[in-house]
UniProtKB/TrEMBL annotation:
Protein name, entry field: Biotin sulfoxide reductase
Cofactor(s) this protein requires: Mo-bis(molybdopterin guanine dinucleotide)
Top-level lineage group: Bacteria
Taxonomic classification: Bacteria, Pseudomonadati, Pseudomonadota, Gammaproteobacteria, Enterobacterales
Molecular function per GO: electron transfer activity; molybdenum ion binding; trimethylamine-N-oxide reductase (cytochrome c) activity
GO cellular component labels: outer membrane-bounded periplasmic space
């Protein structure tokens, strides 16, 4: 399951207990809910249809959100669905069918609801799809233009064992919340975040939690907390870059050999075009942080082997992609990309996967049936389009 790997104890065909596998370093307590979840009264056990729709068909919309759902047999549910799909296709075409369902319906692959639904709708002639994810869509859109696709970057994070050996300063923008690292799409095999953070502390790594919430790094009691104002991370990142450039602390050789666009970025930070230098004092007024602490942090990052991690939560905001862009620029100035224990991360602790060792292997797959045949919209935009068809997204 998404929260871990468990040994199941059953009695007379019912689950009575689950025990974590012996190698799990810090099992999630959420897994203990499994026995009750199987028999819970809140579990959806069979298809259910809105009462008005069941009685009057799709024309009955007044009771949506208010009237009860009525359980029906699978035969009735499938007949209703098939009839409506044929009707929509005949009247409006396949583009009027939205292939929804998000990707967390199952920890397995064959039973992955999204894959099965999309495969079925492709066989029906196509559908309107969404692209990217609610988790990290802004990052997924911007990173291919400045560094590389997010998905392989996420799979190739520096492993925690190397961080424990080499990292001197870990700057966590958005924290490293243990609660998020309990889960992983497709299943979590070993909850190792607390274990490795303890190792890093024991080896002398210093942690800085840049977040409005102190317990976003509760796993490291001695972490310094910089209580930034929500949504202002980009201003902080720009000010840190300003200090590196203004005080000639950046890696000039790395910037010259591995980046493009330094001159206009430098001009922007120094305020040569808009008259606003992105100084620590400028950022302090926006972020609520102390200007001197911002300047000192930039100097510390330049002196030490530094890992800068930015959480997925930071880009879930208006213009959230700018913080990811600014993080890449900052770490490029530091010149530590690709160094042991240094560089940048996009989502340590956002799921159980980041920073873990994974052996790649080929898995069985369903036969692919081509593209969706309809339109594609970013995840959140598809919902807005459903509410206002034809609107410019």
């Amino acid at each position: 399951m998404h929260w871990g790997t468990w040994q199941v104890e059953s009695r007379e065909g019912e689950i009575v207990a689950v025990k974590p596998v012996p190698w799990d370093k810090n099992p999630s307590r959420i897994g203990q809910s499994l026995p009750d979840a199987v028999t819970s009264q809140t579990r959806i056990r069979r298809p259910a249809v809105r009462a008005g729709y069941l009685q009057h068909g799709p024309a009955s919309r007044e009771g949506r959100g208010k009237e009860p759902f009525v359980e029906v047999s699978w035969e009735v549910a499938l007949d209703l669905l098939a009839r409506e799909l044929r009707s929509v296709k005949a009247r409006c075409g396949n583009e009027a069918i939205y292939g929804g369902s998000y990707g967390w319906a199952s920890a397995g692959r064959f039973h992955h609801a999204q894959s099965q639904l999309h495969r079925f709708l492709k066989g029906f002639g196509g559908y309107t799809a969404s692209t990217n994810t609610y988790s990290s869509a802004a990052g997924e859109r911007i990173l291919p233009h400045i560094l590389g696709p997010l998905s392989p970057l996420h799979r190739q994070h520096t492993h925690f064992s190397e961080l424990a050996r080499e990292c001197q300063l870990f700057v966590a923008i958005g924290g490293l919340p243990l609660r998020n690292a309990q889960v992983n799409g497709g299943g979590a095999n070993d909850h190792m975040l607390q274990y490795w953070l303890d190792k890093m502390q024991a080896n002398g790594t210093r942690f800085i939690n840049i977040s409005p919430v102190r317990n976003d790094l509760s796993a490291v009691p001695d972490a310094e907390w910089l209580a930034i104002r929500p949504g202002t991370d980009t201003a902080l990142l720009l000010a840190l870059s300003y200090v590196l450039i203004a005080e000639s602390l950046y890696d000039q050789a790395f910037v010259a050999s591995h980046t493009v666009g330094f001159a206009p970025y430098r001009a922007y930070l120094l305020g040569e075009h808009d008259g606003v230098a992105k100084t620590p004092a400028w950022a302090a007024a926006i972020t609520g942080l102390d200007a001197q602490r911002i300047a000192d942090l930039a100097r510390e990052m330049a002196r030490h082997r530094t890992m800068v991690n930015i959480s997925w939560s930071i880009q879930r905001a208006r213009q959230g992609e700018q913080a990811y862009w600014a993080t890449v620029a900052l770490t490029a100035l530091l010149g530590q990309l690709g160094t042991p224990g240094g560089g940048l991360g996009f989502g340590y602790a956002c799921t159980n996967l980041a920073g873990a060792v994974r052996k790649a292997f080929s898995r069985p797959t369903l036969t692919r049936r081509g593209e969706c045949g309809g339109q594609r919209y970013p995840g959140g935009a598809a919902v807005r389009y459903a509410a206002a068809p034809g609107r410019n997204l």
